[in-house]
Amino acid sequence: MSRFKTNYTDLERKLCGMESCKAVSKVLEQDNLHDLQSIDVLKMLAHKHAIAIYDTGLGKTFLASAIMKMLHNKEHKSRFIMFVTKNQLLQTPHKIKRLTNFDVIGTDGTKDSIQNFIGKAMDYDVTLATYSCLASQTFMDFFFEHRNDYNCIIVDEAHKLNNFVTADVGAKLYEIIKKFEYAYALTATPITTDIEQLARLASIFDSETYHDYHALQMSFQYNYYKISDDPCFFVSRNAAAFGRVTAPKGIIVWIDPMPYQIEAEYSELSDLCKGEGATEQAEALTQLIQFNQGKRGLVYINRHKVREWVLPFLDKAGIDYRCINGRTPNDEREKILKEFNEDKSVDIIITSVTEALDLDCDYVIFYEFTSNIKQMIGRAQRGFTDKNLFVFYMITDKTKEVDYFYNNIYKHCEVASYVLRKDYSEVLDLEDELLEHLTHPEQYVYWGW
């Protein structure tokens, strides 16, 4: 069960009964907002700058679309700019068009794409720009020149912002966001590695209140300040509030090490334990997929050379799968999504993509690890419907992989859960098992599936 089940407050019940809230729920062209989404849209519009922290699959695009519709109803000449990841350019424009009936244009940050965008941008209601656009001087000059032509800026997958913002570009974006009357960050996981990420994000989107991000970071860390202390800026919702109360079930698949893997150092750990030569691990993955035969699953493999090592083992076992990674062309990606979601002609997706894919399935396997665990699990959990989802972590026992998982995955999830009051039980419930293998590895023997 979810650790932090959220219920309606008395105020929220009262708001849900008001005509204004009911009107917001019907603002979209298709689909109605959930009552809590309607309340959050009103909170965000009232505060004007906010960070929406929604569990994966709960409809951040719905929030963004509703805000745009509400602002457009107020001023029909409104334009909106939304920063997204490259992977989101496949499905998000269609979603926003369907929900708002606005004309949407996108640019992926390449030189030709930006030049094409600049010539047409003012003819569209909504601009979707990838984070890589922030590194383009041409785009930033255009954006700065036309900042007054846009009423609202929205940054989706906002936890990625620090990865793309250099000091120079960050200063520009900081100044631009500060001048927007309406500015919003959307994220399921504002903390993937440390609390500083959330503090920096708050400082960018409300520089007046949170001008000293370091002080905010310390306040979060020592529990002097909580996101619930500013509920109209930190607009946070857990899945349980919408009726999705069953947390994913985390399971560690322990793999006995090959002799040369036992002494592997951190710098070579992933190559030796998951890449070329890691026969035990590739065979264990194959067996795990076969064990779940008849069910549909996602397998997270980040690096190309690891994927190249693993795939022949799946081929030899006769496992039918498809691959989606950052270089998969959009037309091929659309074909794969159709095969998986609609035709159901393929049951296994091997992917390194942790956002912008809707892939409803029964289990997720982490062959490699990522700090974006919540994001990856979210590919398999969409909407408000409760479901049983199994999450497998493949860890090579008696190696530094155990230590790495505990200190870099478990500990990060522990911090995020503490600060955000989010349910990370798919990882945190594994603490005793991890500590046992860390302290007494000699007593465990892997027997296979």
Could you explain how this protein is built, in words?
The protein has 449 residues and is α/β, with parallel strands linked by helices. Mean pLDDT is 88; it is low at 1-6. It is globular and about 65 Å long. The longest helix has 21 residues, at 400-420. It is built from 19 helices and 13 strands. It has a 7-stranded parallel beta sheet, with helices on both faces. Strands 8-13-12-9-11-10 form a 6-stranded parallel beta sheet, with helices on both faces. Helices cover 43% and strands 14% of the residues.
Walk across the major sheet and give the strand order: 3-4-2-5-6-1-7
Overall helicity: 40-55%
Q: What is the approximate shape?
A: globular
Major sheet details: 7 strands, parallel
Low-confidence stretches: 1-6
The tally of strands reads 13
The average pLDDT value, as a whole number, equals 88
Topology:
Layout: H1 10-16, H2 19-25, H3 35-47, E1 49-54, H4 60-74, E2 80-84, H5 92-100, E3 104-107, H6 111-120, E4 126-130, H7 137-145, E5 152-155, H8 161-164, H9 167-179, E6 182-187, H10 196-205, H11 213-221, E7 234-237, E8 249-255, H12 266-274, H13 279-291, E9 297-300, H14 304-316, E10 321-324, H15 330-343, E11 348-351, E12 363-366, H16 373-378, E13 390-396, H17 400-420, H18 425-428, H19 431-439
Parallel strand pairs: 1-6, 1-7, 2-4, 2-5, 3-4, 5-6, 8-13, 9-11, 9-12, 10-11, 12-13
Helix pairs in contact: 2-3, 3-4, 4-5, 10-11, 13-14, 17-19
